[in-house]
Write a structure and sequence with these properties.
alpha/beta, Glucose Oxidase, domain 1, 9-stranded mixed β-sheet, 8-stranded mixed β-sheet, globular
């Protein structure tokens, strides 16, 4: 900690310290910080929207977003029903995409057939970006054929830079998505036209190139082509050649030209679908020391922890509401096509945008500009009058998930332990949640140091770790507290939300199902307070006790346009 009051620090140094704090850098007395290259986030993900060519066109269902809950008489919140499968936009492939289960007796079966998206170790999602220029191969193939990336190109990159090694993420940059990912009808050129053999295919590595990378112990790859599979006949051989090493990779990345050839931190994470063969996701990079170096080292040293709950039809991942008929859409796994080579079905998912570990953007609780408050129910109109009498005007917002910068949902992790609140509400007062107060936050600051601008505050309630179980036991996680059968989880009070915003905190997470708790009025006050101050939330975390004293938190939602929630993945990098 700094040993002198900030009023004695020069204005220039104060600004430097504020920048460093907002980026989550570790500063301690006796260890001067480096400000030479200010870290920045680079979003490498395609936007997902109905008019864009994200889904695989050969028989897969189209992406849909249904605004089925809107702020008005029936609800003070916005939420959406999503129909989305893993072959959509920027996406993650894992070994079971091509490797069957070991007991299936199918060709190529093996233990890696169990390495689903929910089983991949968190450290493997990231590493040092090694960008290999393949732009000369765009449109270089014949109609319906891909120009091939050979091992010679990789070897030439190594001669120009350094040998590839464990912990690297090899990224094949062709700028294909930058050029061809466009709204329909122009979007036909992205995937459909190459499949029809009316245009050249996208550039991709051949199986021999994959074998070479596997020999270099590279376990994470990425391409800004539509797939890691060359057309017309090498897609599956290339997949098998890499996935048999336990590789994972990004398909349909974009904006790779914003990265240096080496030195940036790259990461790709997506929703934690149970037994996922692949997943929609969010790719990004961090450019600049020392943060990029710290994240690269944590990935290489395997000191990364997964903080996301698993999405499954057997688990309590969706809001059940109180009583009967007040639930949001349940999480559903829908078979769409049998894969004979895998002995299982490809699936799509139907889910509420706030299912599982998810983002709470300002537009979740704030109406769009122009909203007439008379559109609320009489009860909520009364609550609003009370809220504004204490906290000021509620505000408006159109900030949905895709408009929230990744730099806002990432930062130095500041865990606030509030487990002492569990069991403090008498049964006669249920349904109710213990309130996390300003005093609780200040007590944590006294023990750990003052909160800084850019910190991500994570409320450790222990609720998810205790109660997130398959149904019917899983009712203890959501349904029982909401219906007064058990105490609610500790919830952030509106006063505490305002306090955090005043400290410069712009993202708050919790290892409970929601930040707002089980009381509808108190919860709405909390969401109004956070959103009106521009603070976003990350709800339904788990395992936050594994976050170290010096850690960097990242949450990345799928980049879905107009989404009032944001399914995604939360991870933390423990800095050694």
């Amino acid at each position: 900690m700094l040993s002198c009051p900030l009023r004695f620090i020069s204005p220039v140094l104060s600004r430097c310290l504020a920048v460093a704090a907002s980026l989550g850098l570790m500063i301690s007395s006796g260890h001067p910080a480096t400000y030479a290259a200010e870290p920045r986030f680079v979003d490498l993900s395609l936007l997902v929207a109905p008019e864009l060519p994200g889904p695989w066109p050969a028989g897969w269902p189209a992406f849909q977003i249904n605004p089925y809950e809107r702020i008005g008489k029936l609800s003070p919140y916005n939420s959406d029903l999503l129909i989305i499968d893993g072959n959509n936009g920027t996406q993650l492939d894992v070994p079971p995409h091509s490797i069957p289960l070991p007991d299936s007796n199918l060709p190529n079966a093996g233990i890696l057939g169990r390495m689903y998206t929910d089983k991949v170790a968190a450290w493997q999602f990231g590493g040092e970006a090694c960008v290999i220029d393949c732009r000369d191969l765009v449109d270089a193939g014949a109609l319906g054929e891909s120009a091939l990336i050979k091992r010679d190109r990789v070897i030439a990159w190594e001669k120009a830079h350094r040998p590839l090694r464990f912990g690297d993420v090899v990224l094949f940059r062709s700028d294909y998505t930058d050029k061809y990912y466009k709204p329909w009808p122009d979007g036909h050129r992205f995937i459909a036209a190459p499949l029809e053999a009316t245009t050249p295919g996208w550039p991709d590595p051949d199986p021999d190139c994959m074998e070479y990378l596997g020999g270099r112990k590279v376990l994470t790859l990425g391409t800004d082509s539509a797939s890691m599979g060359p057309l017309p006949k090498l897609a599956e051989p290339t997949h098998l050649a890499g996935l048999k090493y336990g590789m994972i990779w990004t398909e349909s990345a974009t904006n790779l030209g914003q990265l240096p050839e080496t030195g940036a931190f790259y990461c790709m994470i997506g929703p934690k679908h149970a037994e996922g063969l692949y997943s929609e996701g969010r790719a990004f990079a961090v450019v600049g020391a020392p943060l990029a170096d710290q994240l690269i080292a944590a990935s290489k040293n395997k000191t990364v922890v997964d903080l996301s709950v698993t999405l499954s039809t057997e688990l309590p991942v969706s809001w059940p509401g109180t009583g009967v008929g007040r639930h949001r859409n349940p999480y559903l796994k829908v078979p769409i096509m049998f894969a004979a080579n895998l002995g299982t079905y490809h699936v799509t998912h139907m889910l509420d945008a706030n299912a599982g570990t998810h983002l709470v953007p300002p537009a979740y609780a704030l109406p769009a500009p122009g909203f007439d408050n008379a559109q609320y129910s009489p009860e909520v109109q009364g609550w609003l009058k009370e809220y504004e009498g204490k906290f000021g005007r509620r505000g408006f917002s159109d900030v949905t998930a895709e408009k929230v910068p990744l730099a806002q949902t990432s930062g130095r992790a500041r865990v606030v332990n509030v487990t002492h609140l569990v069991g403090t509400i008498p049964q006669a007062k249920w349904p109710a949640s213990p309130e996390i107060t300003v005093a609780d936050l200040q007590k944590s600051e006294k023990a750990q140091g003052d909160l800084q601008a850019g910190d991500v505050v994570i409320l450790h309630t222990g609720h998810t770790d205790r109660h997130f179980r398959p149904m019917p036991e899983g009712a203890a996680c959501l349904a029982d507290p909401l219906n007064g059968k058990s105490e609610g989880w500790p919830a952030l009070g509106a006063d505490a939300a305002v306090y955090l915003a005043g400290r410069g905190v712009r993202c708050v997470g919790t290892d409970a199902p929601s930040l707002g708790g089980v009381s509808p009025k108190s919860a709405l006050f909390t969401y109004w307070a956070l959103a009106s101050k521009g603070v976003v939330g990350v709800e339904f975390l788990t395992g936050v006790d594994k976050i170290g004293k010096q850690a960097y938190f990242v949450f990345a939602p799928v980049k879905i346009r107009d989404c009032h929630g944001g399914p995604g993945r939360a991870i933390a990098f423990n800095i050694e």
